[in-house]
Amino acid sequence: MNEKIVQTAGRQQLGEFAPMFAHLNDDVLFGEVWNEEAISVKTKCIITVVSLMASGVTDSSLQYHLQNAKAHGVTKEEIAAVITHATMYVGWPKGWTVFRLAKEVWKEKQSTPEEKKEKTEKEKYQNTIFFPIGEPNDAYAQYFVGQSYLAPLSTEQVPMFNVTFEPGCRNNWHTHHAASGGGQMLVCVGGRGFYQEWGKDAVELMPGTVINIPANIKHWHGAAPDAWFSHIAVEVPGEGTSTEWHEPVSDEDYGKLK
């Protein structure tokens, strides 16, 4: 589920006034440099934060890159250590300024009673499965009904992710396209869920179930209405691969599952 970084801020804000700058910002800086694979996006986020800090840039651009760092896995403890270390070289005032911004980005909000209950249920479920649940799957939230979570297990050789669905959560109908090869495998590791191909009956998923999804087949998968569910998603290598997202699974059709 690695996704290419796409930036449009340059064209949105300066496309007419400075088209060359917009091109360099969106297509070169983010389109090429940020997508270069020699170092991880997480490392690039840290380098960028330190570079802006050293330059004394503490405006909205630094706030954006702090948020970007958090979104790509930099923890509160890691960013605190990074800023502390950089402060020894770039100066105490800069360190204080960046810490004020970082505290806002990594601020822990007070949980509502509903959120506390949800957290408790999540912790209980985590104790029933071997693999981590991971973080909220915000990057793909638009393609899900309900809350899902994502935990990268391997990003080398064959990408593997543990995807967890809260009760009632399911992804939209979608298709893994490929000119040759491609498709996806689901290895179910916890809870109870369903898988369905377009025009066919839904299949119940339990721990140990393995689903082979051919390329170019419209389908969906997710949790049962009354159960958490987790599967490991394995992307099958192929040529000309892409994922096309379709409409959500309707409440009426989902409600018919037993």
Supply database-style keywords.
6-stranded antiparallel sheet; 2 domains; 5-stranded antiparallel sheet; Jelly Rolls; AhpD-like; alpha+beta; 15 strands; single chain; 258 residues
Query: How are the strands of the largest sheet arranged?
Result: 1-3-4-13-8-11
Could you give a short account of the major beta sheet?
6 strands, antiparallel
- Tell me the number of helical segments per DSSP (H or I, 4 or more residues long): 8
Looking at CATH, the homologous superfamily of the largest domain is Jelly Rolls
Helix proportion range:
25-40%
For the secondary structure, the number of strands is: 15
Just name the CATH architecture of the largest domain. Answer: Sandwich
Assign the CATH topology of the largest domain.
Jelly Rolls
> What is the overall pLDDT average?
91
Series of secondary-structure elements, N-terminal to C-terminal = HHHHHHHEEEEEEEEEEEEEEEH
Content-based structural category: alpha+beta
The CA-CA distance between the termini, in Å, is: 30 Å
Low-confidence stretches: none
- The 3D shape can be described as globular
Percent of residues in β-strands: 15-25%
Rg over C-alpha atoms, rounded to the nearest angstrom? 21 Å
Integer tally of domains: 2
CATH class of the largest domain: Mainly Beta
Protein described:
The chain has 258 residues and is an alpha+beta fold. The protein has two domains: 9-105, AhpD-like (Up-down Bundle), CATH 1.20.1290.10; 113-255, Jelly Rolls (Sandwich), CATH 2.60.120.10. 37% of the residues lie in helices and 25% in strands. It contains eight helices and 15 strands. It has helices at residues 9-14, 19-33, 41-54, 60-71, 76-90, 92-105, 113-126, 251-255; strands at 135-136, 144-145, 148-154, 160-165, 170-171, 174-177, 180-181, 184-191, 193-197, 203-205, 210-213, 218-223, 229-235, 238-239, 242-245. The strands form four sheets. A six-stranded antiparallel β-sheet has the order 1-3-4-13-8-11, with no helix packed on it. Strands 10-9-12-6-15 form a five-stranded antiparallel β-sheet, with no helix packed on it. Helix 3 runs parallel beside helix 5. The two termini are 30 Å apart. The model has no long low-confidence stretch (mean pLDDT 91).
